[in-house]
């Protein structure tokens, strides 16, 4: 029987490891991850003050950053913001660490694991913006319970996001898009944001494409780009 809440989280991601890491990649993980990781053993306010020193104006969260191209774009475009990227897939984490080093970024921190324990750890109203871009689709009906965007995760996001904060979610799966809209409506803490292009089919200029989006478009799938505001 699962004994802790983390053990009860159904796996929502595919793999933790891909190809064998090169010596350089393994060294990067060993050298930079401890410095850039968030420690959940400290109270969250103490830890965020420690990791984002000098202080940042606000903190944003990206859940499932994949190859980190969106995370890094946002960090470069918004140097006054602290970004926490969550990703359990080691190859993605290595890509993020390489890009952080190459661009000499000081405003990105990495949670190289499932985002859900981090969500539970974060203080109420501590996050100004959250991105969940193309969460794993889990297309088979019996796997829908593994989908990351659910009533439970939205309730946790409602707790940690500050009023007026923005939640951005993208998907290329039509029935997931419908389920997301329904879950947001039922959850009642977010409303469609007026700040976006006014159309779920367009991203807007402050929202760069991800690798997964490019693949979806090449394969002819339509994407939805949701923006919700924390009420
Ligand atoms: C389909 S990929 C999309 C990656 C990227 N956002 C993009 O658009 O290219 C979904 C990503 O979410 C990550 N993921 C799934 N469940 C997660 C969780 N519970 N916490 C953090 N990341 C998760 C997966 O490892 C995977 O990299």
Structure description:
The chain is an alpha/beta fold and 231 residues long. The chain has a single domain, classed as Rossmann fold. The protein is 38% helix and 19% strand. It has helices at residues 5-8, 23-36, 44-51, 69-77, 90-103, 115-121, 151-160, 174-187, 211-218, and strands at 58-63, 81-86, 108-111, 127-133, 161-171, 190-192, 224-230. Helix 2 packs across helix 5 and helix 4 (69-77) runs parallel beside helix 5. The chain is globular, with a radius of gyration of 17 Å. It starts with a helix and ends with a strand. The model has no long low-confidence stretch (mean pLDDT 94). The chain binds S-adenosylmethionine (SAM). The site of S-adenosylmethionine has 24 residues, from helix 6 and helix 9.
List keywords for this structure.
single chain; 231 residues; alpha/beta; Rossmann fold; 7-stranded mixed beta sheet; 7 strands; 19% strand; globular; binds S-adenosylmethionine
Largest sheet, spatial ordering of strands: 3-2-1-4-5-7-6
Q: What is the H level of CATH, i.e. the homologous superfamily?
A: Vaccinia Virus protein VP39
Q: Report the biggest beta sheet as strand number plus sense, adding barrel if it closes.
A: 7 strands, mixed
Poorly predicted ranges (pLDDT <50, ≥5 residues)?
A: none
Main CATH class: Alpha Beta
Annotation field: number of helices: 9
Overall 3D form: globular
Query: N-to-C SSE series?
Result: HHHEHEHEHEHEHEHE
**What distance separates the N and C termini?**
37 Å
Structure summary, number of beta strands: 7
If you average the pLDDT, what whole number results? 94
């Amino acid at each position: 029987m699962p004994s802790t809440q983390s053990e009860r989280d159904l796996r929502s991601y595919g793999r933790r490891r891909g190809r064998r890491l090169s010596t350089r990649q393994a060294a990067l993980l060993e050298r930079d991850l401890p410095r850039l990781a968030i420690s959940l053993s400290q109270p969250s306010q103490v830890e965020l003050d420690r990791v984002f020193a000098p202080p940042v104006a606000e903190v944003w969260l990206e859940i499932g950053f994949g190859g980190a191209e969106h995370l890094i774009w946002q960090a470069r475009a918004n140097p006054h913001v602290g970004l926490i990227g969550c990703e359990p897939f080691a190859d993605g984490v290595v890509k993020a660490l390489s890009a952080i080093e190459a661009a000499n970024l000081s405003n990105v921190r990495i949670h190289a694991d499932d985002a859900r324990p981090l969500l539970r750890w974060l203080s109420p109203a501590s996050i100004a913006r959250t991105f969940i871009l193309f969460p794993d689709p889990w297309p088979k009906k019996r796997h829908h319970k593994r989908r990351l965007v659910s009533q439970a995760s939205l309730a946790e996001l409602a707790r940690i996001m500050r009023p007026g904060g923005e939640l951005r979610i993208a998907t290329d799966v039509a029935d997931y898009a419908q389920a997301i809209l329904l879950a947001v409506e039922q959850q009642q803490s977010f409303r469609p944001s007026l700040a976006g292009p006014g159309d779920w089919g367009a991203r807007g200029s402050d929202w760069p494409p991800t690798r997964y989006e490019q693949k979806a478009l090449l394969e002819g799938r339509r994407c939805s780009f949701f923006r919700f505001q924390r009420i």
